[in-house]
């Protein structure tokens, strides 16, 4: 009997179980069925955070776990992620348990040990039904099912991407909370803009105070945040209040928190735990009611393992966590961003708003943008300021991205042809092959996802690739 292969290899599946053996068994079964985006979690406390981070089609959830049980997670998942289907796995098979799970939002119920054919059939049905429900609701993947209450708070952020809209919905939900917020994302993704949106939605009467703590030694950190009394050290000829006091009744945003020195981490932990601090040169304890927002482009969990960041501080910071996707994962926003930055910097330069070539967004989409939106803005600023009015030429953009990093495999001839002229232009077949290979590469060799992007069915793409490999 031939092995079953899913028709949805790009569906994201999350498996949650406190037993490593069970995780490996279920994960192996899903991989063998063709599911390529499978993640496992042993700690049930991380489930909600992970679901905000990625758009999962289905969650396979063990019912009995320490910390937070599957039974407690079920209604939370159903409420917060209505288009993520949950399949329960447990050794409890009594009727009352089954009925309770179904009432609390479970899509299906599997008895342990899980039968592989039954498991795959359940996942396939969940993924298919999710697609039907989202299509009927007129939603794209990852788009939240409710409108924003205050869209003006996000006016500085140019996007129409589903993941960003989901982040906006989450921000509206937590904006009134007094707990810390941790914003994670690569450099240039707009972490401070998100922090300012949080501040506007919080409706706090105090100021928004931002400070980059990268490069601050322990003394400078303490002086900058907590201030000092007159005569606290040589040169301290007058009192300094510090940024914590300045942010009273407002928001204190600490950027690049992953670079904070160890002694400063201890002081920050006390500030978050007790709401207290001591200015340099005094024993007097002061209190604050400021809301704290932190951001970093560092992998804090990796830093904890390397003993560069305190685990207890990490758990204090991440009460509410926001993950900003890099630009390469929201390329559908490119035309909006290009137009916005062209108009912005033409206005600042005293020029009429220029036009950009219809193929510019398509060409730039082949570049990974390691500097993200900040890099894109710099690229467009340079082109707008250096060029004249009217239609912007492609050449400055393409030369810039060629200079900023190696071109993706299979695109050299295409880019070179665009830049150098007709004598270097590749044939139509070469361009088609380059484009197909590039889409496959960008999708992580996921042929199902690549076929969707190319507008082809899986079988046709597979045959085309095999034919191209023989040439």
Strand content: 5-15%
What Rg do the Cα atoms give?
26 Å
CATH-assigned fold name of the largest domain: Rossmann fold
CATH class of the largest domain: Alpha Beta
Total number of domains: 3
Number of strands: 12
Helix content: 40-55%
Describe this structure in words.
The chain is α/β, with parallel strands linked by helices and 471 residues long. The chain folds into three domains: 12-136, Rossmann fold; 151-325, P-loop containing nucleotide triphosphate hydrolases (Rossmann fold, 3-Layer(aba) Sandwich), CATH 3.40.50; 328-470, Helicase, Ruva Protein, domain 3 (Orthogonal Bundle), CATH 1.10.8. 46% of the residues lie in helices and 12% in strands. The protein has 20 helices and twelve strands. The strands form three sheets. It has a five-stranded parallel beta sheet with strand order 2-1-3-4-5, sandwiched between helices. Strands 7-8-11-6-12 form a five-stranded parallel beta sheet. The longest helix is centred in the first third of the chain and has 21 residues, at 116-136. 32% of the residues are buried.
């Amino acid at each position: 009997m031939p092995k079953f292969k899913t028709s949805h290899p790009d569906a994201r599946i999350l498996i949650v179980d406190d037993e490593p053996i069970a995780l490996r068994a279920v994960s192996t079964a899903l991989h063998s069925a063709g599911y390529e985006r499978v993640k496992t979690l042993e700690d049930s406390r991380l489930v909600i955070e992970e679901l905000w981070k990625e758009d999962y089609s289905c969650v396979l959830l063990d019912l009995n776990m320490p910390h937070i049980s599957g039974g407690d997670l079920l209604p939370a998942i159903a409420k917060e992620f209505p288009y993520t289907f949950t399949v329960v796995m447990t050794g409890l098979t009594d009727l009352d348990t089954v009925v309770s799970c179904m009432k609390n939002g479970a899509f299906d119920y599997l008895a342990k040990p899980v039968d592989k054919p039954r498991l795959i059939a359940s996942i396939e049905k969940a993924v298919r039904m999710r697609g039907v429900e989202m299509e009927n609701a007129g939603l794209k993947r990852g788009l939240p099912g409710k409108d924003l209450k205050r869209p003006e708070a996000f006016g500085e952020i140019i996007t129409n991407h589903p993941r960003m809209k989901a982040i906006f919905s989450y921000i509206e939900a937590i904006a009134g909370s007094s707990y810390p917020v941790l914003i994670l994302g690569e450099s240039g993704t707009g972490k401070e803009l998100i922090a300012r949106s949080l501040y506007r939605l919080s409706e706090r009467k105090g100021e928004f105070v931002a400070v980059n703590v990268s490069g601050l030694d322990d003394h400078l950190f303490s002086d900058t945040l907590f201030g000092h009394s007159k005569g606290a050290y040589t040169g301290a000829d007058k009192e300094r209040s510090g940024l914590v006091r300045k942010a009273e009744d407002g928001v204190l945003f600490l950027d690049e928190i992953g670079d904070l020195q160890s002694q400063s981490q201890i002081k920050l932990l006390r500030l978050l735990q007790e709401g207290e601090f001591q200015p340099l040169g005094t024993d007097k304890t002061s209190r604050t009611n400021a809301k704290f927002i932190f951001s970093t482009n560092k992998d804090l969990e990796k830093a904890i393992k390397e003993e560069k960041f305190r685990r207890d501080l990490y758990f204090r910071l991440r009460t509410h966590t926001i993950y900003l996707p890099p630009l390469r994962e929201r390329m559908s926003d490119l035309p909006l961003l290009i137009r916005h930055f062209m108009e912005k910097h033409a206005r600042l330069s005293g020029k009429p708003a220029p036009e950009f070539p219809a193929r510019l967004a398509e060409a730039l989409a082949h570049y990974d943008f390691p500097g993200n939106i900040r890099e894109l803005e710099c690229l467009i600023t340079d082109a707008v300021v250096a060029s004249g009015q009217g239609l912007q030429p492609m050449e400055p953009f393409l030369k810039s991205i060629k200079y900023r990093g190696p071109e993706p495999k299979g695109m050299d001839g295409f880019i070179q042809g665009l830049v150098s002229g007709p004598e270097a232009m590749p044939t139509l077949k070469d361009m088609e092959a380059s484009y197909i290979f590039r889409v496959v590469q960008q999708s992580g060799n996921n042929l199902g996802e690549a076929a969707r992007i190319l507008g082809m069915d899986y079988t046709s793409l597979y045959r085309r690739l095999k034919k191209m490999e023989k040439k």
